[in-house]
Amino acid sequence: MIDPGTLTADITATVLSALLPWILWLLLFLCAWERPEEARSAGFGRRTFWLLLPAALLASIANTPLLTWAGSVLAMNAGGALIPLLLSALLLYHAVPGRNPRLLAGFFLGGAAVTAALFGLLFLPVGTFAAAGPAVGWFFAPTVPGGAANWLLLAVAFSLPLFLGAGAAFATSEGSRLLARRLAGLSLLTVLALLATYFSSSAVPNQGIESTFPAYLAGPLGVGVLAALLARPLFHLPRGTALSLAYASATVGVLVGADVLREPPLYNGTAAILSIGGAGIGDLVYLTGLLAVGAAFLVVILLNRDGQGSWGTAPTPEPATPQGLWREALRLHAQGRYQEALVRAEASTRAAGKQLERLTGAPPEGQEGAWAALGPAWLEVDRRNLAHLASVGSDDPRESARALLAARLFVDRASSTVRSRFASVPSRSAAFAIDLAVLTTPAVLVWTLLILRSGSSSRLLTGLPFSVAVFGYLGFGFLYFLVCDTVWGSSIGKQLLGLRVRDRALARPGLVPALVRSAPKLLPLSLLGEGGAVSLVLLLTPTPSPLGPLGPNFGFATGLLLLGATGVGLLLVGLVSAVTILSTSERQRIGDLWAGTWVLRAEAATERPAQGAPGRAG
């Protein structure tokens, strides 16, 4: 007999699981687009939106192998775990005024110590090595509610926030007291997320870690609410900072509570890839941080409904092209918001002038130095008139229309002047081809060695070593582009062809922009890593044909077809990138558009002093 209550709960859990990412993305979108200034100050502006939606979605196909343990391979999914963890560290670093690294170091070092203690409590006293083979048999300590092991678990988990709280009470200097209070608050939020995740999850052999609905919602939602309520009284930070605090503590808490403390029983000697964040955008590591942010966002809005509350530190300007600002001015004019359209049109002119200063080396003397190089003296007169009109304001639609026409002239002239400074499609394509060769050549050698040692395509394709080699190619390829962009601002291919990746200040891109712009590259890497590797298996190993007459050549023919399909896929990806680059005023592909980055010729990529920020986001 069907239990109506159980059936209703199952249907609700299934529907919510499917809708949850979309609901959270909608909240993130509303935060980033409807409250742009507040969102940037809280660390969740439009760049973060692109990072946590399309970039994480694309990065979910990449697993980076970390180590082998008891016959299994422990890996980390780029979209489901790597991006959330890197973003957590970055948000914590920027959340506190002064960007004091001691908060970040104390949080992660203290958390690592407590995690080691919890791991030892749960596993080491009762872990036994199997009598035969390399497998390790693990046995849980008792987890019956109210048991001695649970009380000890709670005591160890809460030891760090209690210790830090005591340190805050007895600290002699105000700076040390404030740091200890913030660390104690962060540790408390993380412990609450950790315990809520641990007691609502379980390890299921051959499936992974499963969580109970709706219990797994309690931890992140509670952390988000508490972070918003405690941001001022405990952390002495603006309320908007609660979004960063909630995201980081919830993400780290679920990582420890689920993947560190629940996953070891799955290391049972069976050859498998155990991926942290392996469910991608459906994984608890990914969803928990967004759940906490959503709860904190709603509470902060409720607490700031009078509009007087402070969200965070001064917002960092996000990328805005002169063309984008002009299009926004046109939209405002069409809506009858003439004063706003006038101001935005003048902003597009200023952005175009800054672009000229950066990329042409014009003297940084306001806008005069930039526009004087473009020729007629009336350009400068028009620019001054437009700036004056925007400063005094006007609701006259005719003035708004004149401003739009004048701004269009400035934007077009600046765009045509700086276009030659951006990298061309052939040079970018050649650089990316070199990078693919650098990454793929050693991977092909590894795949070939595995194929020659195996001799059987069916055994090889279902085996753990080959899967690790393929996923390792994707993961390390992603890390290659990420490290090259952030550390050197140029990959090997770009270095050889004299190209550089820069932001609008001509500096190397930061971590978030680099993550965003690298994510689309996982598509060609996936085509090469999966399609190329499987086609190589079919080409080098005989595969009997089910049709008979083709005999051992069946696998070779299939391999050729798959290799051709892989080549067509790479061609289509390259074609989309080329069309995007050619159709954008700043020669940007999709990743650059999301991240607000440029790919420049080396001679145009030298950072020059300039007055003010390179452009304000609209």
Task: Report on the architecture of this protein.
By secondary structure, the chain is mostly helical. It contains 24 helices and nine strands. Helix 10 runs antiparallel to helix 11 and helix 22 packs antiparallel against helix 23. The longest helix has 31 residues. It is globular. The C terminus is likely disordered.
Query: How many domains in all?
Result: 3
Judged by helices, strands and strand pairing, the structural class is: mainly alpha
**If you average the pLDDT, what whole number results?**
83
Helicity level, as a percent range?
A: 55-70%
Low-confidence stretches: 125-146, 547-551, 610-618
Shape: globular
> How many individual β-strands?
9
State the separation between the terminal residues, measured CA to CA.
59 Å
Rg from C-alpha positions?
A: 28 Å
Strand content: 5-15%
Widest sheet: strand ordering: 1-2-7
The description of the largest β-sheet is: 3 strands, mixed
Tally of individual helices: 24
Provide a brief overview of the structure.
By secondary structure, this protein is mainly α. The protein has helices spanning 4-34, 36-42, 46-59, 78-95, 101-122, 148-157, 159-170, 174-199, 215-230, 242-260, 284-303, 322-334, 338-360, 368-372, 378-392, 397-418, 425-454, 457-461, 464-488, 492-496, 511-518, 522-540, 553-583, 590-595; strands spanning 63-69, 72-77, 128-129, 136-137, 201-204, 208-211, 273-276, 499-502, 598-601.
